[in-house]
Design a protein that fits this description.
Structural class: mainly alpha
Strand content: 5-15%
Oligomer: single chain
Order of helices and strands: HHHHHEHEHHHHHHHHEHEHHEHHHHH
CATH class: Alpha Beta
Number of domains: 1
CATH superfamily: P-loop containing nucleotide triphosphate hydrolases
Distance between the termini: 44 Å
Strand order of the largest sheet: 2-3-1-4-5
Largest sheet: 5 strands, parallel
Number of strands: 5
CATH topology: Rossmann fold
Number of helices: 22
Length: 448
């Protein structure tokens, strides 16, 4: 084994052991739908979740969290706080939608959607593209809490009176919009401190996690967390063992989650305008059709990496994730679940892409090229938007110099850690391997 997944910090293990031994005193954290809903309403002082709120996904998830996930005491505590936070976000969002109906009347910005598999350079790509001042991303502090906690902190009427913006049709330059309008985020915005506390807590609970996926409260993060507000995403199955919920989710129409994510994006762009969204999450590989249906003008950026490298890298990240929530994490079960799931996600994306006219909606990014020299791959992307400028190249180079590859340490992993062979991965990803073979042949032809 290249990793010892059992090495949680001593204090973490001791606290869980001691806490569990007091369960007979009634200290076990309660995970009940109605209790969570009451707590969110009490926390916010708000009542309305919106007409499009459906509590069935939450109920199904809680059933399997309680019956299958085998959470340790800290895992139950984190889960309860997180679910209350997600419900509170929805309550606060509905408050804003009532106060400012113009928010939902906006057009969503055009979007570049990064849809690569986990561990294929998607984080680096998004963080580089975030350096473009015309781009709107969702930093970690904002995706954890996409709606201000203090409902009176941002005067949305005043913001748009000052900046003179209407949707994404603004004609002012980016620098003018932000230098002459209200500053965002406000220094009093509690969401930044909340995110910074979360990052510190994660470092304490799982010190090795940052070598796998560096988390920074101020850097862009996956917008899958916006789908979590509807309790319909693959986040739970990455955090804990909930196979029944995962199976139900795979067979369930997820349009409501995507439709509500768009509403949250419109709220965020209303508060801080830009020209284009740059979003990313591997979850979107499974649903490119829903992305196109609900997001409007989109272009997909698809990074590719050798699956024999990216898959075990991702499985190790899931294992670290699950150790934060449970003492009983079986690497083989992690592999069984996610190798099949990855093949399923890739298959859905390829089926969509191979439909007539859809191939032109994608730009492919080569992981090995991107890591060695990002400028060439970025140039392919910016051919969609007039080409790279010297100013942008300098921004990208500066970001890379400040955030070198493996800045947070070396992430070691192997197929053997999960009882896998290359043949097992190949058996679940046949359609993707065929697609990559055709793509390689096409690229070679284009070079001639």
């Amino acid at each position: 084994m290249t990793n010892n997944f059992r090495q949680s910090p001593f204090w973490f293990r001791a606290l869980n052991t001691g806490w569990r031994e007091t369960y007979f005193l009634g200290t076990k954290i309660r995970l009940d739908k109605d209790d969570l809903i009451r707590s969110a309403r009490k926390t916010t002082g708000l009542q309305d979740f919106g007409r499009d709120f459906n509590d069935e996904p939450l109920a199904r998830l809680l059933l399997d969290v309680n019956e299958e996930a085998d959470l340790h005491p800290i895992g139950r505590f984190i889960t309860r706080e997180r679910f209350i936070s997600l419900l509170s976000i929805r309550l606060r969002a509905e408050y804003y939608f009532k106060q400012q109906p113009q928010i939902l009347e906006q057009e969503l910005y055009p979007a570049w959607i990064i849809v690569g598999l986990q561990r294929t350079g998607t984080t680096k790509l998004q963080r580089l593209l975030a350096e473009d001042p015309d781009h709107r991303v969702v930093p970690s502090w904002e995706v954890i809490n996409p709606v201000p906690v203090d409902l009176e902190l941002y005067d949305l009427n005043e913001r748009h009176r000052v900046t003179g913006l209407q949707g994404h049709k603004a004609t002012e330059s980016h620098s003018y919009r932000f230098s002459h309008g209200p500053i965002y985020p406000d220094s009093r915005d509690k969401r930044i401190a909340i995110a910074q506390t979360s990052v510190k807590a994660l470092k304490l609970m799982s010190p090795g996690f940052f070598a796998i996926h560096p988390i920074d409260a101020m850097q862009p993060e996956e917008d899958i967390l916006l789908l979590d507000v509807s309790f319909m995403s693959t986040t739970p199955e990455a955090m804990m063992h909930v196979p029944s919920y995962a199976a139900w989710l795979e067979k369930t129409d997820q349009s409501p989650a995507y439709a509500y994510a768009v509403k949250l994006l419109k709220l965020m762009q209303w508060i801080k305008p830009a020209q284009r969204w740059v979003l990313k999450t591997p979850h979107h590989l499974e649903f490119p059709g829903l992305i196109e249906k609900h997001f409007g003008e989109v272009h997909f950026l698809w990074p590719h990496r050798n699956l024999h490298e990216s898959v075990p890298s991702f499985l190790s990240m899931v294992t670290y994730n699950r150790m934060i929530f449970s003492n009983r994490v079986d690497e083989r079960l992690v592999a069984d679940h996610w190798v099949r799931k990855i093949g399923y996600m890739l298959g859905n994306a390829i089926d969509y892409r191979l439909k007539p006219g859809n191939d032109k909606k994608f730009t492919d990014i080569r992981y090995d090229h991107f890591i060695k020299d990002s400028a060439g791959e970025l140039a392919k992307i910016y051919s969609l938007n007039g080409g790279l400028t010297p100013e942008l190249l300098e921004r990208f180079r500066r970001h890379e110099s400040e955030n070198p590859h493996r800045k947070h340490g070396v992430h070691e992993y192997s197929l053997a850690d999960f009882g896998l062979t290359a043949e097992m991965i190949d058996a679940n990803t046949e359609s993707y391997r065929k697609f990559i073979g055709n793509l390689n042949g096409r690229e070679q032809t284009e070079k001639i």
